[in-house]
Design brief:
By secondary structure, this protein is an alpha+beta fold. The strands form three sheets. It has a five-stranded antiparallel beta sheet, sandwiched between helices. The chain has three helices and nine strands; from the N terminus they run E-H-E-E-E-E-E-E-E-H-H-E. It has a single domain, classed as Alpha-Beta Complex (Peptide Deformylase).
């Protein structure tokens, strides 16, 4: 089942998501499968639960599209539940990022290249793992979503001002995308 992607401006995207327990989500594998289906339909490489309107600490990644640049990403498909960043290291490097919740906007974002993470997979097996390069970047981007942050929050005040109209248009539904989106309720003016 494909979910609509929650658009920029919805409060769920700015809320820090709580951890979940196995007994709360007995059908986690079905939810994960639906998130992958949604992500693939939108041609994304990552999707966090807040982007489908669920404020929980869950995100999925399939970095295979970047395997041309990095051989290690050929089969990099993972589920992250209750992820916690333990360490970020290295000199920050820029990459032109985009987001399914913020279509048609791409900006250079600086992130550290090395990451150590604690998380559970969809079978509720605990992992403590290190990631590097593009894998670390994608994880950091999705991790930001469960922390209530967007890549636009990392931009300078000037860059934010320059894209403000585009962001407002997205929140009002004035954007053309090839996937289903859900826009924040527009309040009636005075």
């Amino acid at each position: 089942m494909k979910f609509p992607i929650i658009a920029y401006g919805d409060p769920v995207l700015k809320k820090k998501a709580p951890a979940i327990e196995p007994e709360e989500y007995p059908h986690i594998k079905e939810l994960v499968a639906n998130m992958y289906e949604t992500m693939y339909a939108a041609k994304g490489v990552g999707l966090a639960a807040p982007q489908i309107g669920m404020s929980i600490r869950l995100f999925v990644i399939d970095a295979t599209p970047f395997s041309d640049e990095d051989e290690n990403l050929k089969a990099f498909k993972k589920v992250f539940i209750n992820a916690q960043i333990l360490e970020e290291a290295g000199e920050e490097w820029p990459f032109n990022e985009g987001c399914l919740s913020i279509p048609d906007i791409r900006e250079d974002v600086y992130r550290k290249p090395h990451l150590k993470l604690s998380y559970y997979d969809e079978a509720w097996v605990h992992h403590e793992e290190s990631f590097n390069g593009m894998a670390a970047r994608i994880i950091q981007h999705e991790y930001d979503h469960i922390e209530g942050k967007l890549f636009t929050d990392k931009l300078s005040p000037l860059r934010k001002r320059l894209i403000e109209k585009k962001l407002n248009d997205i929140s009002k539904g004035f954007v053309d995308v090839e996937y289903k989106m859900k826009f924040p309720a527009v309040k009636k003016g005075r």
